[in-house]
Amino acid sequence: MYQSLSEFFADAKNSGKDWIKSQAKISAITFVLLLVGLFIADIVCEKKLGDGVAWDILIPFIALAIAIVDAVPVLGISITMLPWAALATIFSDDKKVGLAILIVYLVVMLVKQIIEPFIRGKSLGVSPIEELICAIIGYIVFPGTLGSALGLIIVPVVYTAAKKFYIKKNPSFAEKKNAKLADKFKDAIDITDDVKDVKDE
Questions:
Q1: Chain-centroid distance, C-alpha 15
Q2: pLDDT at 144 over 80
Q3: What letter does residue 139 receive in the DSSP assignment?
């Protein structure tokens, strides 16, 4: 029993490290998306409106700050970019600057929502659908902002550790899964009959 618990906690520790690595990758991608998006928005606004999004030298620091805040579960880029877009709309000479920031926000959010389950799932060793379901369960089950933030981390990590532990204790499960995949793609990769037919001709 003790050995089993020790193995499970070791798997959970490794899954936690994998989660942190996946978050670092997502944050890096978010930073790049924000950097490119804000520079494009700044150039377009300067050419069309004569008023940029921000001073050019500040854009990399703004993108970095938003990416760091986004790394905190639950907070996301909404907490920084939506107020920024609102303030730009209110105080800028041209209201379209706020719209440009809002468009950058929407594009980055869309790309993040698509790639996040794939990156995190690959890092944790589960499918994107499994990771997404775990994240949703964690968000719902744990109450409050802090609780939801912990839930987004804890549930996927515990699920991944449990899955790895189960596969270790039941190697036949992995064998059956691999056998099903092999059967599925057998016709696609087995070309021996075609080669024989060519030789006979």
A1: 15
A2: no
A3: H
d(CA 113, CA 99): 21
101: number of Cβ within 10 Å: 26
Q: Which residue has the higher pLDDT, 121 or 180?
A: 121
Of 71, 68, 109, 103, nearest in space to 84 by CA: 103
Long-range contacts of 101-107, Cβ-Cβ distance < 8 Å, separation of 24 or more: 101/38, 101/41, 101/53, 103/41, 104/34, 104/37, 104/38, 104/40, 104/41, 105/77, 105/78, 105/81, 107/33, 107/37
Rounded alpha-carbon distances, angstroms, from residue 62 to 57, 99, 151: 9, 17, 28
Compute CA distances 93 → 75, 81, 90, whole Å: 30, 19, 8
CA distance 180 to 121: 21
| Predicted TM-score (pTM) of this structure | 0.74
Within 8 A by CB and 6+ apart from 121, the residues are 127, 128, 129, 130, 131, 132
